[in-house]
Amino acid sequence: MAEEKRRKVTLNHIRGKKERGERITSIGVYDAPMAAIADRVGFDLLINGNAGPMSLLGHPDPTTVTLEEQLFLTKAVSRVTEYGFVVGHLPFLTYHASKERAIVNSGRMISEGGADSVKFEGNKYTAEYVAEVVRAGIPVMGHIGMQASRRSEQSGFGIKGRTSEDAAEIVEGARTFVEAGAWGFILEQVPTELAAFLTEDLPVPVITLGGGRVNDGVYHISGDVVGYSAFPIPRNRGAYADVGSIMEDALRRYRDESATGSYPPEENTFHMQPAEHEKFLALVAKK
Fold first, then answer.
1. Are 153 and 194 found together in one domain?
2. Is 188 annotated as catalytic?
3. Domains: count for the chain
4. 65 and 176, same domain (yes or no)
5. Residue 211 and residue 237: Cα distance in Å, rounded?
6. Percent of the chain having pLDDT more than 90?
7. Which candidate in 188, 193, 276, 278 is catalytic?
8. Using CA atoms, how far apart are residues 71 and 171, in angstroms rounded to an integer?
9. pTM of the model as a whole
10. What ranges make up the beta strands (E) of 115-266?
11. pLDDT tens-digit profile of 108-156?
12. Are residues 115 and 253 in the same domain?
């Protein structure tokens, strides 16, 4: 039987998976090499979240990430992506000041960044901006639960929705996002009971990061999956490889061989033909 030809992932494809109870696959990618690998492997969603500028550009906090930096990384991802649905995150305060600014910056993420959708963190107060962007014809994915750019407001990066009141507030925010037109969510760092409720309650896909297994799919950051990040990898995320230590060992060996003069090896060096070498020496000697 011939293998089915791969096609570009669309919103209808993602929604159909939710309706059929099929798992939606997603991964956070922030540079062209990783995006190309992930697209070859085959993920539904390739998400350029705010962890990209943090891990690749050294931002200790997502509140310092600029739109231009996020655009820069989204361009790198979209240029090499043929099949995955690319989602570009909108950084802190790039869509809060006005509806006009929300539309313009979202539009830039699509037209310049090459994304298929933008992603907003927020709550019931952010929903009005979501609605305006959706009305402009730009798909919006929500991000609820733990929101890194709101870490001061949320008192850190810990689990959100532990209490009944906090969980109910997250549900309210999610419902208003859906009413505003959001097509799906990243639900980060919440108890699995809350993830299960929202997955059943909402008509749109719910993808969790640190929210258990009861969902429409899970999200993980590629750098954490393979052990490649400027920061410690969260213990509860899990890693499938440790390429960081492999790279560190390779760089150390290269440094040591450079220092001793044994790099490059003789077989990797280039030589002139003896006759040409003699002619060269004669030419430079005359000058």
1. yes
2. yes
3. 2
4. yes
5. 10
6. 71
7. 188
8. 30
9. 0.89
10. 117-121, 140-145, 184-188, 206-209, 217-221
11. 999 999 999 999 998 899 999 999 999 999 999 999 998 766 555 554 5
12. no
